[in-house]
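INFO  loader      accepted 1 record
INFO  loader      residues=399
INFO  predictor   begin
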Amino acid sequence: MDAPSTALRRPLADLETPALLLDTPRLQANLRRMAQRMAALGVRLRPHVKTAKCLPVAAATDAANLAAGVPGAAEHGPITVSTLREADQFAAAGWRDITYAVGLTANKFAHVRRLLDAGVALTVILDSVDAARVLSAAAAAWPTPVQVLIEIDTDGQRAGLRPDVAALLDVAAALGGPGVRLDGVLTHCGGAYHGHGEAALRAIAEQERAGAVHAAERLRAAGFAAPVVSVGSTPTALFAEQLAGVTEVRAGVYVFMDLMMAALGVCRLDEIAASVLTAVIGHQPDRGWTLIDAGWMALSRDRGLAGEFTDQGLGLVCDAAGSPIGEDGGEWIVSAANQEHGIVTHRSGDPTRRLELPVGTLLRVLPNHACATAAQHAHYELLGADGRVNGRWARFMGW
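INFO  predictor   done
INFO  writer      dumping tokens
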């Protein structure tokens, strides 16, 4: 792992709140877990860097993959991005094998061309004949061809073509000319976020694998090249029993984990590496409110899987050491928020149950969705095993 940007060691009490904390021992454990799983399955890991948007986190991920013997791992290993801004930042720092995993539109062609001209091995995705034709026409004169994966819908949750539709071959046929190269298929089975229990997650992982492999086999049978079969999410990556026919897995939130992953049984609460440090700023005793200085600008408004699993509000409230508060733990949540104010209540909603803490008391809030919460902050404050802050890592934002 790269050294922190500062060597100053200090207690949590020295931080201004709200602050985004990153527990580095938990981070490292999460990285090792995924790397060891991919090594055991014998599949390349293409981490999705959208969760952290942080160069040192990506470097630590590559180091873990190398140490575990993940196929294709490298010092600047293959990555997945969700914005072309991410591609720019990581390419400038040495990452050159990049998949942009959001459907491509013509207003981004110039940006794609700049990355290709800079020597980036960039892969883009699309799922329609129109998009394929427009890209093929625009890229015809590009000196470096762009690699293309056709997005496959393996669960009806988002974008992509169903594996069996005739349009799959039509899209492949529309990718013609010297400026594009069809490389295969890509899918993301978002249905994994609705899997109740280990058996359900294993079944969804197999559904994702089988659908993507079937689509690739159809392309090959029709005479098209499809060397890449790219699948993945954190739940399916960790619960897949076998990945026959798959060449790479994409996963992102595993680096931090969050309350959604805990709800699914993918991680424990004490494996969540990212949290928001906040301070008590007041009380409304008649309402049972404890006010904190972390509002939706610090936590995001993402309520995670509240409609299907336990409602964690806008985050689970812990003490300053990161342990959920209450006799059984997990009794207090951020039930509502304004821009800079969070409202902490007992999860029962009973106003007579109050969190009696003095103003200035430090608390930590575990996020529902680590990607969304991290996106509210410009950097991570690094926590060592001793619970002290030992540095800061920058993250980047925007498109």
